[in-house]
Amino acid sequence: MPIIDQYNLQASLQFSITGTEEITKDLQMTASTTAAAGVVNGIVTSGGSPVEGATVKLYTVNDIPVAHDITNANGRYTLSNIVPGSYKITAAMPGFLTPLAIPLTVTANRPTTVNITMSADPDAGKNALFGIIRQAVALTPIEDATVNIYQDIGGVQTLVLTTFTNSSGQYFAPRLVSGDYVVVANKTGYDESASAPVTLTGGSFEPLSLNLQVNTQHNVGTVSGIVTDQLTSLPIANACVALYSVIGGVETIIQITKTTSVGRYLFGNVLTGNYIVKAIAQTNAPEA
Question: Is the pLDDT of residue 153 over 90?
Answer without folding.
Answer: yes
